[in-house]
Design goal:
It is a single chain. By secondary structure, this protein is α/β, with parallel strands linked by helices. 58% of the residues lie in helices and 15% in strands. Strand 15, helix 25 and strand 16 (567-570) form a beta-alpha-beta unit. It binds ligand C2E and magnesium ion (2 copies).
Length: 651
């Protein structure tokens, strides 16, 4: 009976297309892809040898081709076909991200090799015993008595794979599990067909069809890659790391932060900068590849790359990190521009060093500020107990705790009027005392709250607390005209800011003129339309405005002239340089200029009598004396009770 070899031809074509597409697309050389490639190559070889064996059996006489060629085709078929099942079992482990479970289970590894070895031994002794199969003189294939052993081993591997999928279904992604299982009914139907109609060689075609599913569903899709950098996307890393934490899989992560990425972008321009990032991705991939280190390279935005590796041995990670360090220390040419990255590198192991998902991402964004020195490899394990570092890492929790426990406290720093020779107002400053870390300065937690978004809730808390203070105390009696409250840039662009503040002051029954809101130049510059509208509307209701930290940013004179600010606060950096004659000219003339515009001028950070005196006596054609002074010379920020006591003594 003639075998129907057309199915094998189809299977072969499908497999060759996939193998070439995998090679051409230069798919990521991770373990699952490598095993899939091996599986496809085995399937292609099995298909072609199956086809050859059938063809020889159908169309040739022994005299034409010789018995050895026919045997050759059959041996290649058995070898490659029998290897496909154990390799598929490995593919399940790799693609379901549970390779570590296989590796840790010595018995499983020995069993795998034992059974593969057993199959090979049976094939090796077959020429002498013909217990598996033999060919007759007229090239007909005859099954041996032990051929069933091959099927049993194959069935065993099949069941093994099925068992893994079922056993670990809780930690294997649903689409992966169902695709991996799909192979079973497909192959099972093919085997049934071949049992009923032995001449219909559909088994290899069924395998090729299953591969088609794997390629479509399981392989890393383009959407997982960042089109700009060529690395895996940030979003993919979130999925991946989340899954890894859920299944308690040990991994090593190497973060590489190009701390000066913004400067590089500015210097190169966007399109050259993109090319620069692409080159970095491929350089990082090849470093890992040279070391035979199994990794995926991720780009986490803002100049941060991450190597994610299943290799948990820190001794394998360090040489990679060191090589990255050396590579990054050298300038890189992009067109005619030479770029020197300021790289910070940090090696982390999970779950040993970091046990939760969110800390990993906080670490990715903050480690360079506290840990990394330029071109230094930092092992996270050695630093995770540093106080500063822990504070930064746990800031989200610290802030949430502070809001829950109401452990934020408002301090008040008196503001001195040189013309009235008394304290006329005060600035409210937020203080945070954490149960675990003690006092944390606002200079640390405010910027972090701004980047995490917690600033809105914190800002509301500050407004509430200070409005309560104003409502509780008779400011006139204390000789205070208003209290200044810092508004973060993020608050200035809140759409409901005006309604919120007006509602609060109305319910607390306080007068709008008792409130002065401090905004910074940054806030005045971002999204000017909404800031303008918020400031104008609140100002129209009687709330005062002060421009804080004037002189630290790009002093935007247009904003000073267009925004309805009543007061401008010269930053401490002015008085820090007061002994420099040129700076004195700047201070003097800036005060004069602002005064002529009708603004109240306040100088911040005055620490000594000498500086205070100079400011009090400053004298030009336009001005006599700086109006308002704030600084440690007069008083440090104080808790509410002490502040009231202080003020009462000096009314
Ligand atoms: P800022 O608004 O410019 O506040 C003035 C800062 O200078 C305060 O630091 C104050 O303690 C400090 N200071 C005052 N006089 C002197 C002096 O003579 N010498 C020195 N060395 N420092 C002086 P603080 O309280 O640490 O606050 C730092 C920054 O944190 C503030 O700068 C402000 O930008 C921010 N901040 C503080 N409280 C709040 C708040 O409630 N909301 C928001 N959004 N930001 C706040
Ligand atoms: Mg301020
Ligand atoms: Mg300031």
């Amino acid at each position: 009976m003639n075998n129907i070899i057309i199915f094998d031809i189809c299977a072969f074509i499908i497999l060759v297309i996939f193998i070439s597409s995998m090679l051409l697309k230069k798919q990521m050389r991770d373990r699952a892809n490598t095993i899939l490639l091996i599986l496809m190559e085995l399937a292609a070889l099995a298909t072609i040898s199956d086809f050859m064996a059938a063809y020889i059996e159908n169309y040739y006489e022994a005299a034409d081709v010789g018995l050895s060629l026919a045997y050759g085709a059959n041996y290649i078929y058995f070898l490659t076909h029998n290897l496909m099942f154990p390799v598929y079992t490995l593919y399940i482990y790799a693609t379901a991200d549970i390779w570590h479970i296989y590796k840790q289970n010595r018995k499983a590894v020995y069993l795998w090799w034992g059974l593969v070895g057993f199959d090979i031994v049976l094939l090796l002794i077959n020429p002498f015993t013909h217990i598996m199969f033999r060919l007759t003189e007229d090239l007909k294939y005859v099954r041996g008595p032990f051929i069933i052993v091959f099927y049993l081993v194959a069935a065993f591997f099949g069941l093994w794979g099925l068992w893994i999928i079922i056993r670990y279904k809780a930690i294997v992604r649903h689409d992966k599990a169902s695709t991996l299982i799909l192979l079973y009914p497909i192959i099972f139907s093919a085997i049934i067909i071949q049992v009923i109609w032995p001449e219909v060689l559909v088994e290899m075609l069924s395998i090729a069809v299953a591969v088609l599913f794997f390629m479509i569903v399981l392989q890393r899709h383009e959407y997982q890659l960042d089109p700009v950098t060529g690395a895996m996307k940030y979003t993919t890393s979130i999925d991946r790391i989340n899954a890894i934490f859920n299944m308690h899989k040990p991994i090593t992560i190497i973060f590489i932060k190009i701390a000066n990425h913004n400067n590089i972008r500015l210097y190169l321009g966007q399109s050259r900068y993109n090319a620069y990032l692409r080159t970095q991705t491929s350089a990082l991939s090849s470093i890992a590849y040279r070391h035979n280190y199994p990794v995926d390279v991720f780009y986490l935005d803002n100049g941060t790359y991450a190597y994610l590796s299943d290799d948990y041995d820190i001794n394998n990670a360090i040489p990679i990190a060191e090589e990255v360090k050396e590579y990054m220390a050298k300038p890189m040419e992009v067109d005619e521009f030479s770029v020197l990255p300021d790289a910070r590198i940090c090696v982390v192991r999970c779950p040993e060093d970091v046990e939760d998902f969110s800390t990993i991402f906080t670490l990715a964004t903050t480690f360079h500020e506290t840990l990394g020195k330029t071109n230094d490899v930092v092992l996270y394990a050695e630093h995770r107990n540093d106080r500063d570092f822990m504070i930064r890492n746990e800031m989200d929790d610290i802030l949430a705790r502070a809001l829950d426990n109401r452990s934020f406290e408002m301090y008040y720093q008196p503001i001195y009027s040189t013309t009235e020779d008394r304290f006329v107002s005060a600035e409210a400053l937020l203080r945070l005392k954490d149960d675990r870390f003690g006092f944390i300065p606002p200079g640390v937690f405010i910027p972090m709250a701004e980047s995490s978004g917690a600033i809105h809730e914190i800002g509301d808390h500050v407004l509430d607390a200070v409005f309560d203070f104003i409502a509780r105390n008779d400011l006139d009696e204390l000789g205070l005209k208003y209290i200044e409250i810092n508004l973060s840039a993020a608050q200035c662009i809140e759409v409901d800011l005006v309604d919120k503040i007006l509602h609060m002051i109305a319910t607390k029954g306080i007068d709008a003129t008792r409130v002065s809101l401090e905004i910074t130049e940054t806030a005045a510059n971002i999204n000017p339309a909404i800031v303008d509208s918020n400031v104008h509307r609140l100002h129209d209701e009687g709330i005062r405005f002060a421009l804080d930290d004037y002189g630290t940013g790009y002093s935007n004179i247009r904003r000073v002239t267009t925004l309805p600010v009543d007061q401008v606060k010269l930053d401490k950096s002015f008085v820090d340089e007061i002994d420099n004659p040129k700076m004195w000219i700047v201070i003097r003339d800036t005060i004069a200029m602002l005064r002529e515009m009708g603004k109240e001028v306040l100088v911040e950070g005055v620490e000594t009598e000498e500086v205070a005196e100079r400011l009090i006596k400053v004298n030009t054609d336009l001005l006599q004396g700086c109006e308002l002074i704030q600084g440690f010379y007069f008083c440090k920020p104080l808790p509410e009770d002490e502040f009231i006591e202080f003020i009462k003594k000096r009314i």
